[in-house]
Amino acid sequence: MIDAHFCTALRIVVSNWRSQLTAEEMTQQLCDPVAFGLAMLPALDVELAKLGCTRTDVHGFAWQTPCLHLRSVFDPLGIPDTPLDFRPIPDCAGTLVARATAILSLAAIGADAVSYGSENGGDLFVNLVVIPGEGRVSEKSQGKMNGHTDGVSFPIRGHRDPEDSRIAPSPDFVCLSALRNPNAVPTTVMPLDAILNQLDPQDIHELQKPQYILQSQLTFRDGMEEILGQELLVDDAQLLFRMNSGFWIRFSHSSTQTAAAGESPAKQAMQALAKACLDCFIPVTLAPGDIAIVNNRIALHGRTKVGEEHGGQSRWMLRTYGLDTSELDDSQRHPDSTFMLFP
Ligand SMILES: [Fe+2]
Q1: Cα–ligand 1 centroid distance for 217 (angstroms)
Q2: How far is the CA of 45 from the centre of ligand 1 (A)?
């Protein structure tokens, strides 16, 4: 019920906002997403109160939910053909409303909409679409995606990279706004609770040891070279972290290896984790106008195969990240941006 109330309140607040502004004014306001989110919160509180709900209720619910599925939360009206690359996002009413709703939904749960300078030029929103052509990026855009957390080579919030303290934490949330999904290709979500239920205590113990190597995900590699002079590779990485509230995870099937070659308890635990992901994924099918806020600490996410269709009316999601930035150091940001994190 809380999610339905949250949807209703978000729709009303963003519709009112949109009705008072030109597209140019909307674009201008979204340039500073943090200020925009803060400015809109009082109106959201009023709408939630009318439904007998508070932002504290929404906040508590969101942080315990592997995936918050906000159904029909915005109208994807008048959008052009599906783009053929990660960026730019076409400026039109449908994408502006999608972006405003995503930013406000994150602000409501105590997370700023953020990007990383090393991924897609640091754009706050990117198109998740089929990218035509040759090469790994194009292939990845069409294929199935196994379970992973985003920003896997970045430290979890509250920790620092052992060699470069400027590296910002990975996001708390991955936020997907659906503009088109004609074949109802599901996003897949694997709750960490369900995964851990499938693992034996020995595997859970191994995953908490600093004995894995994490490579940066493909979309970050070029930007890392440019900003850091090399791709960020983390040795002696831990995958599972015991927190006050339970466990947090970071993992990517394609970017995680064990430090020692050959069979080992570490490798066995990683294989058990990968197998558990296959056994406990939940398909979340996003319809146009839906937003999914996937918790990047207590869930892994992926996707089933998309296929080759591109442009036109093909699948199109917008993606941004959410992070509780209250403990972020200034050195973990790019100085000329309110939302772009380092690297
Ligand atoms: Fe992802």
Answers
A1: 9
A2: 30
Judge whether 77 lies within some domain: yes
Q: How far away, in angstroms, is 78 Cα from ligand 1 center?
A: 27
CA 125 – ligand 1 centroid, Å:
13
Residue numbers of the domain that contains 147: 69-87+113-341
Specify if 320 maps to a domain. Answer: yes
User: Kind of pairing, strands 67-70 and 291-295?
Assistant: antiparallel
pTM (predicted TM-score): 0.97
Cα of 145 vs centre of ligand 1, distance in Å, is 8
CA of 288 to the centre of ligand 1 (A): 19
Token pair for 271 = 């294989």
Query: How remote is the CA of residue 40 from the centroid of ligand 1, in Å?
Result: 28
Q: Are 218 and 191 in contact (CB under 8 A)?
A: no
Give me the amino acid identity at 304.
Answer: T
- The answer to whether 270 touches 276, Cβ cutoff 8 Å, is no
Say if 302 falls within a structural domain. Answer: yes
Work out the angle between the directed axes of helices 93-108 and 23-30 (0-180°, nearest 10): 40
Query: Looking at the 3D structure of the chain, how many domains does it have?
Result: 1
Measured in Å, residue 301 CA sits from the centre of ligand 1 at 6
Q: Could you tell me the CATH number of the domain that includes residue 311?
A: 3.60.130.10
If one counts every other C-beta atom within 10 angstroms of the C-beta of residue 89, the result is: 18
- Name residues whose C-beta falls within 8 Å of residue 248's C-beta, 6 or more positions apart in sequence: 156, 192, 240, 241, 297, 298
SS3 of 245, please? Answer: coil
Collapsed DSSP state (helix, strand, coil) of residue 59: helix
Q: What is the pLDDT of residues 75-115, one digit of tens each?
A: 998 999 999 999 999 999 999 999 999 999 999 999 999 99
Q: Compute, in angstroms, the gap from residue 49 CA to the centroid of ligand 1.
A: 34
At 31-79, the pLDDT tens digits run 999 999 999 999 999 999 999 999 999 999 999 999 999 999 999 989 9
Residue 57 belongs to a domain = no
